[in-house]
Design a protein that fits this description.
With 296 residues, the chain is an alpha/beta fold. It is built from eleven helices and twelve strands. The strands form four sheets. The chain has a five-stranded mixed sheet, with helices on both faces. β8, α8 and β9 form a beta-alpha-beta unit.
């Protein structure tokens, strides 16, 4: 059991709803639900009574809640005391990321960052593009690894630095007819059912899709939308359609899907780091430098 389990538990208990709690914590709903199940398995008790639209605390959950709050409060006091004694103003950094886009960048950046800032604790937040931009504006994230947004909230002083370009690929079930085609272009996708990330969480992805197909003088045939890579992979694996993804997506899907680059190649996905200029200090600068090093 880790402190994050207690923090997540307290917020879920206060909201009595996983969706609202996930929005408040700036994480997606599936990981939060898994964390709650992991906590219950660790304790060997049920903390929540689950209903279709809400959660309520069990008797054990109500007894556990004030204890969890007390532990979190003591931990916060301990960190502040340690920071004061060491003369360091910052003991952790909050980093937002999209798993499917940063599977290659994030591990390298973390290794480089740890080499120079080993005493700084890294807190990772699995978020959508919109979730990361909002969290940056509100000061809840220090850095976000994300696809290049079409707009930046200028009033919040958010900056973006490109890091890597990834080729556009098609993810499909191994038995799909296109899986045996040597050369797949956008023309071959005109009549295919496309599975996409949700429009609400990933508006940049949908804007990119529309622009991509506009050049073919057609519109994408969107059939289903999902809020996470895990759900998208499951839908494609069920052969409910195909998905346009970035190079390296096969590291997430494994042999369950065939991932093939489009030819001729459309403009690539641009992934980079975003941060709020007023929050940039030595620790944030060190992480940005570490992320920059992944371009090598």
């Amino acid at each position: 059991m880790e402190l994050r389990h207690l923090k997540y538990f307290v917020v879920v208990a206060e909201e009595e709803n996983v969706t609202r709690a996930a929005a408040r914590l700036h994480i997606s709903q599936p990981p939060l639900s898994r964390q709650m199940r992991d906590l219950e398995e660790t304790l060997g008790i049920l903390l929540f009574e689950r209903k279709p639209q809400s959660l309520t605390l069990t008797t054990a959950g109500r007894l556990f809640l004030p204890e969890a709050r007390a532990v979190l409060e003591r931990a916060e006091q301990a960190m502040k005391m340690a920071a004061a004694l060491s003369g360091k103003g910052r003991t952790e950094i909050h980093i937002g990321y999209a798993p499917s886009l940063t599977i290659d960048i994030l591990p390298q950046a973390l290794r480089r960052f740890h080499a120079v800032q080993g005493g700084v604790r890294v807190r990772l937040h699995d978020l959508s593009t919109e979730g990361m931009l909002q969290a940056l504006q509100e000061g809840q994230l220090d850095v976000a690894l994300m696809i290049r947004p079409s707009r930046l909230p200028a009033s919040a002083g958010v900056r973006f630095r490109p890091l890597r370009k990834f080729a556009v690929c098609l993810a499909m079930h191994p038995a799909h007819p296109l899986a045996k085609v040597a050369r797949i272009g956008l023309r071959e996708l005109a009549s295919e059912r496309l599975i996409a990330y949700s429009r609400e969480d990933y508006p940049e992805y949908h804007a990119w899709l529309q622009q991509l197909f506009r050049k073919q003088k057609t519109s994408p045939l969107l059939s289903e939308e999902y809020d996470s890579s895990t759900s998208l992979i499951a839908a494609v694996e069920a052969n409910r359609g195909v998905a346009l993804v970035q190079e390296g997506f096969e590291c997430l899907s494994g042999p369950r899907l065939v991932v093939q680059a489009l030819k001729p190649a459309p403009p690539p996905f641009v992934v980079g780091a975003a941060w709020r200029e007023q929050d940039r200090d030595d620790v944030v600068a060190a992480f940005l430098e570490a992320a920059e090093g992944t371009k090598e």
